[in-house]
């Protein structure tokens, strides 16, 4: 049965930062930043290569979450799709089942729907460019800045 799979969270090539209720993950290879909500972060952190899907879902059962195993499967599917697991995991949910589960979770659960928000990080050239200014003339002397106007937050921008 697929519940016996023991997914392992990928650790190499990632920079991880905890926030109050989310986990920010930056993939150095793909140059992609991801924000895992609390539900997905909990599942990812429990993926140690020893915990089965059933073991991980028990954490959500303790929170009295309905459909805990399906919640874990949705999170696992997203983690795999974003390259945050070491090995492929064979999903138990079809796309139709996934939609039904999401409806149930949305209406009847104390646990948030698993979400990974993904952003593309700026290139290293753009990330290192400083367009700080104190006066409008400062923006004219910095060729890498996108605008010649110093806005209220001290950045060369419209």
Strand-helix topology:
Blueprint (H helix, E strand, L loop, with lengths): L13 E5 L4 E5 L4 E5 L1 H9 L6 H10 L5 H14 L13 H14 L7 E5 L3 H5 L7 H5 L18
Antiparallel strand pairs: 1-2, 2-3, 3-4
In short:
With 158 residues, the chain is an alpha+beta fold.
For the record, the count of structural domains works out to: 2
Return the structural class: alpha+beta
Shape: elongated
**Average pLDDT number:** 78
Unreliable spans are none
CATH topology of the largest domain: Outer Surface Protein A, domain 3
N-to-C terminal Cα separation, in Å? 57 Å
Strand order of the largest sheet: 1-2-3-4
For the sheet with most strands, the description reads: 4 strands, antiparallel
Features:
158 residues, alpha+beta, 4 strands, four-stranded antiparallel sheet, 2 domains, Outer Surface Protein A, domain 3
Would you mind describing this structure in some detail?
The protein is elongated. The model has no long low-confidence stretch (mean pLDDT 78). The protein has two domains: 2-120, Alpha-Beta Complex (Outer Surface Protein A, domain 3), CATH 3.90.930.60; 130-158, no CATH class. Strand 2 and strand 3 (32-36) form a beta hairpin. It is α+β, with helices and mostly antiparallel strands and 158 residues long. It starts with 13 loop residues before the first strand and ends in an 18-residue tail after the last helix. The protein is built from six helices and four strands, in the order E-E-E-H-H-H-H-E-H-H. Strands 1-2-3-4 form a four-stranded antiparallel β-sheet.
